[in-house]
Every structure is written in structure tokens, then in C-alpha cells.
Design a protein that fits this description.
The complex is a heterodimer of chains A (58) and B (323). Chain A has 58 residues and is mainly α. Chain A contains one helix and no strands. Chain B has nine helices and 15 strands. In chain B, helix 1 packs across helix 9. The two termini of chain B are 28 Å apart. The chains are: A mainly alpha (58), B alpha+beta (323).
Chain lengths: 58, 323
């Protein structure tokens, strides 16, 4: 995680303890198959609302 | 003939799943254009002289002529574009990214005359949370009392007026870094420099453990209830997702917000108060929805493909304007 200090004191921003839901893992396998593409959730977020949609830098 | 293009990031699960549904259920071929893999891909060409096509590279290694497209799903156009290592100068690498991005947009703006899901400029505009809250309120939705500010006095006054604890969240996202909403207390807001460094969204907390994720695809509305004790369910381990029917009035209001923002689709986040009343939090113009399918078996991929096919049937693609 990037250190966004001083803002960092005000927001929780950690994937620590997060487990990708097994049910979602199983569904991904059925969709892409065992040898299919590695499924990608842009930005690493399943919801897309925190994936930096407008983050323009390289 | 390819009539649909999906502009997104390389390896996007949504693009893969929807193109599969389009092919299998509707016999529609969709080209996937990886907006973060334009550099060194070749195939990006536009010209105002006879000869060259108006083409974009597809993820599969071919090209698609945008003049033959009837629909573009404008899903992701940012991300972290790749640039060959041979380009070592930092400024030049930025220029490569910007020029490829401008050429992508320009080729579509100048040569594509079909249906957008959704218009790129409307999508960009609709990302703004202040605008979202204003539009939602204007159509009669309940929204949280909100302050967006970098002024320490205003922030402390607002927090004090709401019981000494409010929710703080960012106005935008940050690629690669998860930024969750969190509670802040009056006691923690004693550093003026920290508050004034950036405008931040401060909101009254909406109590409850039930959230709604609502997918508006054209006129179709698909809603899921997400139950979680976490304030922000996105990284919650206790998330339970199930389909739910919305009151027609709420569905209509969400369709109305979508229209007013100039969008063809929107993925909404609402929270349900303990008295059952829904409170609008935000709309993601290109939000993810397939995790809802994965967690609930709601057939949202098929529903989105149906939406694309219906839009395609209505596509107003017109011939190039006579000058």
C-alpha cells in the first residue's frame, strides 16, 4: 500500500485479512475454464468503484 | 462482420464473459480493444486521405475498422498502459501513453457513429460524486448529508453537528490502491494541515448492514442485496449477496439519474436504513457487476449481453455527414 500520509491517518486502506470469496473463485473457474485466461478485475477490486477509473498516469 | 467493440484493459474478465455471451446467445462478434496495450501493438490508423482504414488493434492481434461498428462499450480507457522498455525517457513514455490515448479517442470520435455504452464524456462527467449527489437528490432519492471540503473549521463543524463521528471517503479512486470509506471522529480532526491537504468527502453515517448494488442496463434494472457488517463491503469477508426486487419508484428514480447523467448504464451503490428506506451513495458509470453473478448466481452477464443486443437493434448509425 502506498503511504498517503497525512491523509493515511484518516482512511483504512488495507487488503490485510481479505480473502477472495471461494464462491467467486469457483465461478471464475467455470467461466474461463481451468486453462482459460487469468481473470482480471481491473485495479484488483471486484467492485470497480475504487479502481482508479480516471487514474491517467502510466 | 464485427459490429461491436469493447474498449477496456487487457485481460478483462467482463469483456471476455460478455463477448462470449454475445457470440453464443446472439451470434454477435465483439472485438476487444485493450486500451492499455496500444503502444507497439500497431494497427491504430486514421487518415483523411483515401487508402488507410480507420482502425484500432484488437486484443487478438487483428484490427477493426471503426466505421463498420454499430456499438462501442466504453468500459475502461485508463489503467497502466505498457510502453516498450526501449523508450527510457520518463517524459517520452508519458507522451507515448497520451498520444496513443488521444489517437484511440480521436479515431472513434471521428469515425464511429453508432451507439455508445456510454458516451466517453458523459461517463467522465458522471464520475464526479458532487454531481452524482446533486442529480440523485434532484430526482427525489434520499442522499446522505454531505460536506466536501478542505477547510478545517467547516470539517470540524460538520462533524460536531453529526454527533462527532462521520464517514470520510475520497472523491476519486486510485489505481492499485484500495481506498475504503472510514469513520472519523472529532477528536481525530485536530490537525489543520492534514485536513487542508485535500478536499475530502465527509458524510453522515447511514446505519444498517444491508447494501444494494443495482445494475441499470438501459431500462432494465437488476438489484442485489449485499449484507455485511462492514462499513465498506468491498473487502468484507462476511459478504452475502442475493437478488432483490426494488420498489418501482426506486427503479424509476435510478433510471432517471442514469438518463440525466447522459449514461446508458450505471452501477449503483445504496444503503438500506434499519427502517427499510434506501439511501443513495454513488453511481459507478462503468462499475463491475459480474462479482454479483459469481456471488449470487444472478445471470447478469447474459442480461448485459441482452442489453447490448437490444441497443444494437436500435442503433442509429448513420452514414458519414455530407459536407
Amino acid at each position: 500500500m502506498k503511504d498517503l500520509s497525512p491523509m493515511s491517518a484518516r482512511f483504512t486502506r488495507s487488503h490485510e485479512g481479505y480473502v477472495h470469496p471461494p464462491r467467486l473463485d469457483a465461478w471464475e473457474q467455470t467461466v474461463v475454464g481451468p486453462d482459460g485466461l487469468r481473470p482480471s478485475w481491473p485495479g484488483g477490486s471486484i467492485s470497480g468503484s475504487d479502481d482508479g477509473w480516471d487514474d491517467c498516469d502510466e | 462482420m464485427t459490429r461491436v467493440a469493447i474498449v477496456t484493459l487487457a485481460g478483462d474478465l467482463h469483456a471476455y464473459v460478455i463477448s462470449k455471451h454475445l457470440r453464443e446467445a446472439h451470434d454477435i462478434d465483439a472485438a476487444i480493444i485493450a486500451s492499455d496495450r496500444l503502444s507497439a501493438a500497431g494497427g491504430l490508423t486514421w487518415s483523411n486521405v483515401d487508402g488507410p482504414g480507420h482502425t484500432l488493434p484488437t486484443e487478438e492481434g487483428g484490427t477493426v475498422d471503426v466505421r463498420g461498428l454499430d456499438l462501442v462499450w466504453w468500459r475502461r480507457c485508463h489503467g497502466r498502459p505498457t510502453v516498450p522498455d526501449a523508450v527510457t525517457d520518463t517524459q517520452l513514455r508519458k507522451l507515448v501513453v497520451k498520444d496513443n490515448r488521444a489517437a484511440l479517442r480521436g479515431t472513434l470520435m471521428a469515425g464511429f457513429s453508432g451507439t455508445w455504452i456510454s458516451d466517453p464524456y458523459a461517463t467522465e462527467r458522471a464520475q464526479n460524486k458532487l454531481l452524482q449527489l446533486s442529480v440523485a437528490s434532484a430526482v427525489g432519492l434520499t442522499v446522505p448529508r454531505t460536506l466536501v471540503s478542505s477547510d478545517p473549521t467547516d470539517v470540524r463543524d460538520f462533524t460536531r453537528a453529526h454527533g462527532g463521528t462521520v464517514i470520510a471517503k475520497t472523491l476519486t479512486g486510485l489505481l492499485g490502491t484500495s481506498l475504503q470509506a472510514g469513520r472519523v471522529t472529532l477528536d481525530s480532526l485536530d490537525d489543520d494541515a492534514e485536513i487542508s491537504v485535500s478536499a475530502t468527502v465527509y458524510q453522515e453515517e447511514v446505519p444498517g448492514t444491508d447494501h444494494l448494488r443495482v445494475m441499470v442496463f438501459g431500462d432494465a434494472v437488476h438489484a442485489a442485496r449485499i449484507s455485511s457488517a462492514e462499513l465498506d463491503w468491498r473487502l468484507a469477508n462476511d459478504m452475502v449477496v442475493e437478488p432483490v426486487e426494488l420498489e418501482p419508484r426506486l427503479s424509476d428514480a435510478l433510471r432517471d439519474v442514469t438518463r440525466r447523467l447522459g449514461l446508458r448504464m450505471g452501477v449503483y451503490d445504496l444503503k438500506v436504513r434499519p427502517d427499510g428506506h434506501p439511501v443513495f451513495l454513488e453511481v459507478n458509470p462503468q462499475g463491475q457487476f459480474l462479482f454479483v453473478e459469481g456471488m449470487s448466481d444472478m445471470p447478469l452477464g447474459a442480461a448485459f449481453a441482452d442489453f447490448v443486443a437490444a441497443e444494437l437493434a436500435l442503433s442509429p448509425r448513420s452514414p458519414a455527414p455530407a459536407l
